[in-house]
Amino acid sequence: MTMPYYASAEQVMRDRSEYARKGISRGRSVAVLTYVDGVLFIAENPSATLHKVSELYDRIGFAAVGRYSEFESLRVAGVRLADVRGYSYNRRDVTGRVIANAYAQTLGAVFTEQLKPYEVELCVAEVGDSSGGDQLYRLTFDGSIVDESDFVVMGGQAETVASHLREHYTRGMGLREALRVGVRALSAVSAATAANGGGHDQLPAEQLEVAVLDRRRPKRAFRRVVGVSLRSLLSDEPVTGEPAPAAVATHVHAPSAPAPGTPAGLGDPTAVDTAGGTADRTLEPDTQDGVGGGTEGDQPEPRTDDGR
Amino acid sequence: MSESSTGRSGFPPAYLDRVGSSFTDFLGLTSPDLLPGRRTLPAAPLGELAPHGTTIVAVTYAGGVLMGGDRRATMGNLISSRDIEKVYAADSYSVIGIAGAAGIAIEMVRLYQVELEHYEKIEGVTMSLDGKANRLAGMIRGNLGAAMQGLAVVPLFAGYDLDAAEGASPGRIFSYDVTGGNYEERGYASVGSGSLFARNSLKKTWRTGMSADAATRSLVESLYDAADDDSATGGPDPVRRLYPIVYRVDAEGAVRLTDAEVAAVADTIIADRSVGNEAREV
Q1: Which residues of B touch A223 (CB under 8 A)?
Q2: Do B10 and A107 touch (CB under 8 A)?
Q3: Active-site residue B6, yes or no?
Q4: Is the domain covering B48-275 a CATH 3.40.50.2300 domain?
Q5: CA–CA distance, A141 with B221 (Å, rounded to integer)
């Protein structure tokens, strides 16, 4: 008969905390700051599509660090909770507190009951009608929840970034100033900056994911700050170039054309939205390079963004 | 409402299993009672008991698409509402108008709005316009049982296609039948009891490539014609200051025209049609 290992509960918890902490500190940092018109999220994130910051509901945003697959499923759960609640009650009955509580319960349960804790740290931010109503909830891997008033820094060398912010942050900063302070704090520890062996003075726009919860926006307060508008906020002189797009420019679909009289998906066999079809002519690619179609075939050329 | 509140252990398991980006499918798994079309209806015709909305019209123009609806809801021979709104923004680039059983239709619009927003939040991109039109078809299909008992809902969907190919018209209109059939329309479309008259009116006034103002006039005039001949469609009501609801969707997004704007158009139409009548009265 084999004897089970004995490990004290204290030891088990300590090991799990250690494990989660290590995983979280390996990543890059995210800072969430309040500014005069709401809440500003700044993440060091080279990917433009794998977001660390996103919208949960009308006035509620989400930021996370750690393991992507884990915080992504938590993010989706938060969106679902918010939408189900808003749909069955009313949109104004969805609060950051409800979502933060659900996260805390879930993280706490996973931490105590499962072998591997979630290696994530989350921030749920809610913007109020005035700066007094802004809420930042910081949630750690063990399910603890802290209500912060000014800023939250998570992941990577969070302590260094936080102490930098404590020195330079003041309440009621404008967007430009808050962004500067935040980016400078993140740059202090980033591997991309010259001080740490990278090639930049401070984090460039391509390495940043920036979004705001702007209380002045009528319904959905969340807005990503991208492209020209981000670059001009980061630099002193206004950036010339194409006008900043008003909304998120993420139209990634293949071009479509109106097709009255043809049921969707049953029209021209060469059209993108048609499944299969029985074309009279065989659809041969123009190039005969010996590579077949389907998943192994040529990658279609990436569509150039026409500025919309 | 147990599913929308979280228990001691946080999110129920279904919330964390990533199964898809459709809100309707998710509700079907976790709280099917919240979905229209999942309830058992009494086996009796209900059409006379429920308020019904009537005429919706959509027209394309050079820069996008317009949709408008009258303000009347009827219950049998009664007017149950003079100021009901039957055209809504579905999301920032599309609008939906509904004819049929008002209660179910409004629930469907609410669900549809959340469906589009939910997809956008989870996927990080908006659905293609064809995708949106298809999702709506699925919802109508689910309502066939109720439709057979007199609670049919027939929407009209229109939007500005951000993915429109070069040279193609960005304003597009989709119509539906009660079985969930989804048809793209050419230029203009109408649904509801007064749709026949509205369509006949549009045939004469609508032209390809109209300006927004001309198209607005054409649309309001078609609703006027529908109200003229269909008792279930309400005309402009200058006494109560009630005018049709009109939405415009263009590259800037969906906006509702103000009552003053629509009133001005309606008043011009009334004035134009009164010309000559004064002379005869002598």
Answers
A1: none
A2: yes
A3: no
A4: no
A5: 62
